[in-house]
Amino acid sequence: MIDLIVIPLLQIVFVLTGVLIAVMYLVLLERKIQAWVQVRLGPMRVGPHGILQPIADVLKLFIKEDITPVKADRWVFTAAPIVVLVPALIAFAVIPFGSSVSLFGKKISLAIADINVGLLYIVAVASLGVYGIILGGWSSNSKYPLLASLRASAQLVSYEVAVTLTFVSVILTAGTLSMVGIVNAQFNNGVWFLFVQPLAFAIYFIGGLAETNRAPFDLPEAEQELVGGFHTEYSGMRFALFFLAEYTNMIIVSSVATTLFLGGWLPPFPNVRALAFLYYVPSWMWFTLKTLLLLYLFLWIRATLPRYRYDQLMRIGWKVLIPLAIANIVVTGAGKVLLGS
Amino acid sequence: MFNTDELVINMGPQHPATHGVLRVVLKLDGEKVVDADVVIGYLHRGIEKLSEHRDWTQIVMLTDRMDYCASAAANLGYCETVEKLLSLEVPRRARYIRTVLAELQRIASHLVWVGSHAMDIGAVTVFLFALRERELVLDLFEEFCGARLTYNSMRIGGVPQDIPPGWDKRVLKFCDIMDEKLAEYETLLTRNRIWLGRTRGIGVISGPEAVAIGLSGPPLRASGVRRDVRKDEPYAAYDEFEFDIPLGSRGDTYDRYLVRLEEFRQSTRIIRQAIEGLPAGPVLGKAPRLIRPPAGETYHANESPKGEIGFFIVSDGKSTSPYRFRVRPPSFCNLQALPRLIRGHLVADVIAVIGTIDIVLGEVDR
Amino acid sequence: MEGQLAFYVLSACILGFAVLVITARSTVHGILFLVLDFLFVAGLYVLLQAQFVAVIQVLVYAGGIVILYLFVVMLVNLKRPPEAHKDRHRRGRLGVALSLVVLAEFVMIALFGYVGPGVGAEGGGLSVRNVERVGWMLYTDYLVPFELASVLLLVAMIGAIVLARREL
């Protein structure tokens, strides 16, 4: 009874709270880091160095007036942001934040659910998130958000293909679809998959940028562009949910990349006896560190690069990333056969 | 098989990327721009008409506010036109100082241009970097004439006061900083493949077409036409300095970017020569107390950062205001090329092209 | 026991939403109910220990195919009602006739083709080796249908491109 209900419930509450706080502070981190890159300071007033800024933002969004366009489909209009956020949140169910901890004499795994098709689960859930964008644009009952949302979802769907193909290479290398299994495979091989599959990592990261609508692939939601973007008609809490979903997706992409390519919760050089002292650092701290590193990469890229035009974006997805990903699969497969492993 | 309609989209007058109150009505076929109709006039303040009721000296203040990113250029153009009417000789020192001011102004205007152009295309950081350098220019101007944007920095006959002590050293120091920071912008943009993808081959116009439409300034030079008022009809002290005119070859957005970037370097080159060779002497020529040019009309052109700015002034010899004051604004004439430049491109390129023409609505509308 | 309960709950949801799909006033609402239906079907697959198929159901069906349905519905103007036929009861009659045919089919299957549980039973290893089993089947026993399906998709894609392009 306890094992079946209480512990998972606790895990879920813990992870959800952690994720939501992390997302709030990721927004602050982005503003700060972008500011420092741009020779300015960012939020400084609310709390020391702007630490309490996310709370002020959440408060503001809560008390804003709730505007629904006149002819909009009310149910779908309200449901769309939820449909974007929920898949992003439930994807955290399979992410292994660490190996395991002992609490009250019980061994609790730091992955809420280690299902045998964990990686595919994430892909499936991500593909559901596209609905929110399409419905958000459509339910605003205005042609510009509709067109923008269709463009954004076409971008997402295209890059999903490339990303899923890179997963195939990783699955080939690890021999399992389970997230915990992939980390264990990296432990058994003694090397992070980043060094075995560098191309897959690159393709995954670029695809991740496009999946989360981040620069340089953020044309569908850029303010300087002509068409308003699919969340034009949204304000207040609903807009906040879209916003949260984007940052939650960023964290998911970084967490998955950490698990697949950077060894998850393992310290660097996990099998080297001489570096065994690194295990004193808790496993979830290694995981967090690596994820933060990738998130910083997201933010850094946004501050530096201009953005691609839509047709150039689609060209890269279809004509560059997908062929490369397929070639990577072929080479990985051939390698496995030749090396007999 | 299916019939598709043309979509008409309105851009502006309130829009984050139109550099002011510009309205462009686009006719689209899918994503391609079929035609564009530019609507201007939202910033018209009647500067030319107002000038007919102001003293010749007061008009300098009005010329500030046309192209507010390049006030000194307009000041200079106006003052020189009136000096031409008066046949007034400007002392050599004043001409040197005027040249320094004009070139500093060119740098400031180009900094705004590179920042906002890059920001429109997505590279937000360049904007902040450019404005950081522009602060230094604005500080120099503030020391000289007391204002940061609308300078009123020239008088008929010269400049209102001499340079503050140590100003020349600070200007030279700024030139060193500017040359160094230019490398930063180049690193971020010039060989960035995303930047190249967004600017190469966008908004192409050939040399003869550019001349026919009336382009001037960097857009004209990027199409390969060698025309710069500073070399062809030298004014201020430009005939005494050595500098090159950067030319492009393809006439696309990327070439316009390269041309303006090179103009930064040439400007610092001119400034250094001017400061190092600054002669002694008065800074204001022997202008009459009450300026009343003899009856007549004249046209005089300058090379403002945006292009060729021309002033056509008619004086009736009797009153203390011009009879007719007409400006040939470079932004207005360059803007005429907009429909021609974006035809056939995608919607996302419209922003890039508006940025590359480098317009200031204050000048377009006056 | 829990399995049975889950099965009945899921089935009720599936049937309920299926009815909503047909009776929804707005086509987009109908499609959204269809997506929910697919999610519950995936739940059924999980009950059957076929986790891989469940996830693929969500990924491909709900997350790919229905999205394309949505695109079409949103971009095509469906406001005009279909033209009415001379015989006003034609639709009702056709509907009843088709339903009777399908019902007859079900009855035939139930009487003659029903395969009871216990066939293809492969106990504990099924969960873990799900993906492998499906992979083997696809590339050995069911290779030809697999390739045929791929060719079918390719044809559909080429057809769509040909229809949509203005000039090549």
From the N-terminal CA to the C-terminal CA of chain B, the straight-line distance is 49 Å
Q: List SSEs of chain B in N-to-C order.
A: EEEHHHHHHHHHHHEEEHHHH
CA-based shape of chain B:
globular
Main structural class of chain B: mainly alpha
Fraction of helical residues of chain A: 55-70%
Q: Uncertain regions of chain A: pLDDT < 50 for 5+ in a row?
A: none
Structural class of chain A: mainly alpha
Which helices and strands appear, and what pairs or packs with what?
The complex is a heterotrimer of chains A (341), B (366) and C (168).
Chain A (H helix, E strand, L loop, with lengths): L1 H36 L15 H10 L11 H17 L9 E4 L2 E4 L8 H22 L3 H32 L4 H11 L3 H4 L1 H14 L24 H26 L21 H22 L5 H30 L2
Antiparallel strand pairs in A: 1-2
Helix pairs in contact in A: 1-2, 1-9, 1-10, 2-9, 3-4, 3-9, 4-5, 5-6, 5-8, 5-11, 8-9, 8-11, 9-10
Chain B lengths: L6 E5 L11 E7 L2 E8 L7 H5 L7 H6 L6 H16 L5 H30 L2 H22 L21 H23 L3 H7 L7 H7 L4 H5 L6 H4 L20 H24 L19 E9 L2 E9 L8 E5 L1 H6 L2 H5 L4 H11 L3 H5 L1
Antiparallel strand pairs in B: 1-2, 2-3, 4-5, 5-6
Helix pairs in contact in B: 3-4, 4-5, 4-11, 4-14, 5-6, 6-11
Chain C lengths: L1 H22 L3 H21 L3 H25 L14 H24 L11 H4 L1 H10 L3 H22 L4
How would you characterize this protein structure?
The complex is a heterotrimer of chains A (341), B (366) and C (168). Chain A has 341 residues and is mainly α. Chain A has helices spanning 2-37, 53-62, 74-90, 118-139, 143-174, 179-189, 193-196, 198-211, 236-261, 283-304, 310-339; strands spanning 100-103, 106-109. Chain A contains eleven helices and two strands, in the order H-H-H-E-E-H-H-H-H-H-H-H-H. Chain A has a two-stranded antiparallel ribbon with strand order 1-2. Chain A starts with a helix and ends with a helix. The mean pLDDT of chain B is 89. Helix content of chain B is 48%, strand content 12%. In chain B, the strands form two sheets. Chain B has a three-stranded antiparallel beta sheet with strand order 1-2-3. By secondary structure, chain B is mainly alpha-helical. Chain C folds into two domains: 1-77, NADH-ubiquinone/plastoquinone oxidoreductase chain 6, subunit NuoJ (Four Helix Bundle (Hemerythrin (Met), subunit A)), CATH 1.20.120.1200; 127-168. In chain C, helix 1 packs antiparallel against helix 2 (27-47) and helix 2 (27-47) packs antiparallel against helix 3 (51-75). Chain A binds chain B through residues 34, 37-40, 215-216, 218-219, 222-227, 303-312, and chain B through 9, 11, 16-17, 26, 31, 118-125, 127-129, 132, 188-189, 192, 194-195, 197-198, 346-351.
